[in-house]
Amino acid sequence: MRRGTAAQWSTANTVLADGEWGYETDTKKLKIGNGATAWNSLSYTIGGPALSPQLTLPTDLGYAAWNFDPSGTSGSLYSLLIGKIYLQRVDIRNNITVSKLAFGFNSGGSGMSNSYAGIYSSAGSRLAATTDISTAIQNVPGFELVVTLTASANLTANSFVWVALLVGASTGSAPQPTSASMPSNDIGQSQLTVQTARGGTYGTGQTSLPASITVASIAKNFSFLPWVAII
C-alpha cells in the first residue's frame, strides 16, 4: 500500500498499478488503481478510520466487482422461481469493461431451458446478456459458474448496475444459488428504495431478458440475495 496526504496525492496525480492501493493518511480514504486512470480521476473505494488490512476486495480474487464478499454466503435451500428475473445490485467503483459474470450455486437443477444472465444499467437498460446458459447451470462445476456475455459492457465509475439471472422454464428441479447470510429480513436495506435496493425480482413468466426493465416495478427481496460477481 502506498501512502501520502491528500495534497501529496493530488499534486503527484499518480497512476496506480492495477489492484494497487493508495491511502490518504490525513483523510483515511483509499483508492485502488486500474493501471490506467490517474489519481485525481480515480474514485475513492473505501473510507473511514476503521479500514482493515485484512479486508478482501473483489480484485484480490480476480473479480472486477461483486455484490458482497463470497465468504458471507450461506448454503441456502432457496430454489429460483421459474420465470422471474433475479436482479442483484453491484456497485461500480472504477471505469471497467466487463465480459463475464459469476454466480454461486448449491445445486444446478434439471430440465431447464430459456436461462439467461445479463447486466442492466441502474435505469433499467440492458447493457449485455448471455446466450442460453441452461446446460451450464445444470452442469455447474465446483458450485461457481462463470458465463460469458455475447458482448462486453463498459461500466462507469461511481454508478451501479443490476446483474440479472433468469431460469425461464423447467421440467425438473430449479437451481439453488448460494445467498447472502442475512441476519434478518431487512437488515441492510431499510434506507434503500426499490430503485436502489440490494436485490429483487422482476416480472413473471419471463423466457428471455427484455431490452429494458421498469426499475420501479422491481420487487425488493428482503431475505434472499444470490451471490454474483462481474469479471
Note down, in words, how this protein is organized.
It is a single chain. It contains two helices and 17 strands. It is mainly beta and 231 residues long. A six-stranded antiparallel sheet has the order 10-9-12-7-15-16. Strands 5, 8, 11, 13 and 17 form a five-stranded antiparallel sheet that branches. Strands 1-2-3-4 form a four-stranded mixed sheet. It is elongated. The model is unreliable at 46-52 (pLDDT under 50).
Layout of helices and strands:
Blueprint: E1 2-4, H1 6-12, E2 21-24, E3 29-32, E4 44-47, E5 65-66, E6 73-74, E7 85-92, E8 96-107, E9 112-121, E10 126-129, H2 134-138, E11 144-155, E12 159-170, E13 176-177, E14 179-180, E15 199-202, E16 219-220, E17 228-230
Parallel strand pairs: 1-2
Antiparallel strand pairs: 2-3, 3-4, 5-17, 6-14, 7-12, 7-15, 8-11, 8-13, 8-17, 9-10, 9-12, 15-16
